[in-house]
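Quick one:
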Amino acid sequence: MPELIFPLDSSKKFTEQTLVGHNRWHPDIPAVATVKPGDEFRVHVREWFDGAIVNDDSAADILDAPLSTVHCLSGPFAIEGARPGDLLIVDILDIGPIPQEDSGPLAGQGWGYTGIFATDNGGGFLTEQFPDAYKAIWDFSGHTATSRHIPGVSFTGIQHPGLMGTAPSTALLSSWNAREAALIATDPERVPPLALPPLPRDAVLGSLTGPEFDRVAAEAARTAPPRENGGNQDIKNFTRGSRVFYPVFVDGANLSVGDLHFSQGDGEITFCGAIEMGGYIDLRVDLIKDGMSRYGVTENAIFLPGNEGPVYSEYLAFSGTSVTLDGQQRYLDSQLAFQRACLHAIDYLSSFGYSREQAYLILGAAPIEGRFSGVVDIPNACATVYIPTAIFDFPVTPTAAGPVAVDPGPGVPHAAR
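Output:
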């Protein structure tokens, strides 16, 4: 087993650990450890809400989830010899949930969760159709996930980190804050907001204290969106065996990782659409000196997907075009087309007896494939959603006999203002 360089005690909160990570991006957050190119190491990772979401049949915790506290990131880890302009190579060697024998009933210890977030607390891809909070608990058996809240479905998880990236430079951080502030200014009262500005409240900044903490907390970027440093990309194909190439913006690169997922569909459409968990990840790092200029990587990571994961060979696919629900034509709006494809799939799954919320959560958690299928045929973009048919324990394809009635069980826990 690789050396454990960032241990976590499951019985303690994120800020009470021997080594404290962070939940904001800033170049001045000190590294918690230094590794050398070629090193392999293990990192423990806290579930992104630090235990605020519990294994029960209520969605009150999702309704009031403390978004100001996320994400709980392990790191930063400095890589010896890394300089701005290099490419950092990160190999994902292994990943898994918290061992069940560890103390404390946290997500990852045999279970995880998926949530639909309320419009006034994060929202989601289909927040206009699903404005309230819902939750589904998923139980793990080996690599398989099932849910008491969504009967008739089981699938092999594609375990992956939702968030991993390098620290921004001072100039890059400044550009993030300026461009996102300009976007917020176009509609400052929007719910959910257009972007999340720096927020000192609930900031966790590693070992920083005193005036330095206050300065960094006022400048540091929130971790919710993906950016040029990688960050919260939520790419389900970052599985075991993946190799990721991150741009380096500061001395040491300062790599961080968090937001582990047991499974996720493309898009993580419910906002907390993945099956969230705490756990461990084993990494190996290396460097390509001056790799950014040599390979034309001016921003954003590139990666080689891992060759491990569930093997599904049959899919039922749903399409959507860039026409709104009330019949307005939009010009090559691929985002809208993907929304319509998701709604198409939700309507279809509802015909078997699932609630629309159960169907929405299936699309977020199961390993669906989302694709932009046509982006040149004016005026309609076409997007598609592919659902593996084998995840259902009943026939899901259309037949002359009509849909098989499925017992949806008690449904998913719901909470509204």
